[in-house]
Amino acid sequence: MTDFFKGISPIKFEGADSTNPLAYRHYNKDELVAGKRMEDHIRPAIAYWHTFAWEGGDPFGGRTFDRPWYDKGMEGARIKADVAFEMFDLLDAPFFCFHDADIAPEGATLAESNRNVREIGEIFARKMQSGRTRLLWGTANLFSNRRYMSGAATNPDPDVFAYAAGQVKNVLELTHELGGDNYVLWGGREGYETLLNTKIGQEQDQMARFIHLVIEHAEKIGFKGQVLIEPKPQEPSKHQYDYDVATVYGFLKRYDLDTKVKCNIEVGHAFLAGHSFEHELAVAASLGMLGSVDANRNDLQSGWDTDQFPNSVPETTLAFYQILKNGGLGKGGFNFDAKVRRQSIDPADLLYGHIGGLDVLARSLKAAAALIADGTYDKAVDARYAGWQGADAKAILGGKVSLADLAARVEKDNINPQPRSGQQEYLENLINRFV
């Protein structure tokens, strides 16, 4: 045991009337919602990077946090692992996620770096045997080191491509050995800074080949989890090839990967792409691409990815509506890809952020489930499309009529359709009854 969270007791559910800041007010993991435990709906995970690896810096200032594992190499990595699993236990967290660079320092060679990751992975395995926290997903950091300044899979240098493959192989195998449910590919720099020195077609071909290699190796080692791509439109690159869900789907479809890869969708990334989280979830669900999600939010006054903890029940309710209508997240979950503010320097602040985020998700889940159970909203939307249930309309979608047939029917029957209200305000008011 460490003394990092000294004096703090495990976080318990105390109910909505509790004033204890170190207690859950709404997140009751065993409460049944729509016939399933709340924890099984949400499947919450703690992100190793923002929680334990981030130092509190921003573009205009460096480290603000003082953590006992900083600047201590592998010794620090072991301390960090101890603190991480103590926090998982305090929060009663069922899952966590990590990048290789989060858990162990990089060595002088790929082999040394991978050995460092494996050593910490062995610590994880031992701690997971005695605790209940499991691995939601693992991933490789293919963006921080300067070798990746021009991308990893999309790099103009094939040696960088090969180095990235070596990292991914190691983390994919470790994820498999730790029982991870997913492996995430986030192309942090898989894009371009300027078209003046970029061959887009070449780079996309490389990216597709890299993903095929990952899929092939996952199958070879018997990995049964999902392989996920995390869309993001920009930042750090000017333009990234995994811009949003629709772009990712088109890319995967082109390269015959659409049945093998799904999406890990982040709130902040959806916002940067000019979308809502609800939109990205709805698109993914419609395409069969919904794999997992990252729970956070951006500051609406900032033009970049601020990764704050979720705090809007109305917005998250709409997200849960899409997830529940899709049948849930399956092997995915809600990863808290969120970080405390750089002025929140106390260990307890890490707990406050996750407690608040889980309470928001719990309230949103229950609101969405109630909205669906009530049925009024679904009936209103279904009524708007009721005409497509008729025989003539089904014939259109079934490919049984031509453009000329449609034109002739309109003329013959003197069809003159009139607009009908979309009732947006009514629907907004209806949804607000549940949040």
Automatic annotation (TrEMBL):
The active site is at 99, 102. GO terms for cellular component: cytoplasm. GO terms for biological process: D-xylose metabolic process. InterPro entries: Xyl_isomerase-like_sf (IPR036237), Xylose_isom_bac (IPR013452), Xylose_isomerase (IPR001998). GO terms for molecular function: magnesium ion binding; xylose isomerase activity. It is found in: Cytoplasm. Binds 2 magnesium ions per subunit. Its main location: cytoplasm. Mg(2+) 1 binds at residues 230, 266, 294, 337. Its EC number is 5.3.1.5. Homotetramer. NCBIfam families: PRK05474.1, xylose_isom_A. This is Xylose isomerase. It comes from Devosia limi DSM 17137.
